[in-house]
Amino acid sequence: MMNQPTVIANGQPVPAPLPCTLETFLLARNLPPRSVVVEHNGDAVPPSEFPRRQLAAGDRLEIVTIVAGG
């Protein structure tokens, strides 16, 4: 059985259907792209770039969920 490639999301290895876009990865994790802020390998990624940003095995993501309200 082959191991699925992983990316590092918030410090944890997470299986990812690579190659894929950042948007595909977020949707697979039930994270609506408009509800999160993402850093990819240290670079802040604007939401407009999520559909084009390609992920590779071992990439590092920091994903922060935006919480509305107060």
Keywords:
70 residues, mainly beta, Ubiquitin-like (UB roll), five-stranded mixed β-sheet, two-stranded antiparallel sheet, 7 strands, 10% helix
List the domain count as a whole number: 1
- Low-confidence segments, given as residue ranges, are none
Order of helices and strands: EEEHEEEE
Q: What's the main sheet like?
A: 5 strands, mixed
Q: Compute the gyration radius: what is it?
A: 12 Å
Q: Main sheet: which strands, in order across? A: 2-1-7-4-5
Please, how many helices?
1
Given this structure, which CATH class is correct?
Answer: Alpha Beta
**CATH homologous superfamily designation:** Beta-grasp domain
The amount of helix comes to: 10-25%
Provide the β-strand percentage band.
Answer: 35-45%
CATH fold-level label: Ubiquitin-like (UB roll)
The shape, in one word, is globular
Topology, number of strands: 7
CATH architecture: Roll
Whole-number mean pLDDT: 93
Protein structure class:
mainly beta
Distance between the termini: 47 Å
Short description:
The protein has 70 residues and is mostly beta strands. It has one helix at residues 22-28; strands at 6-9, 12-15, 20-21, 36-40, 43-45, 54-55, 60-65. 10% of the residues lie in helices and 37% in strands.
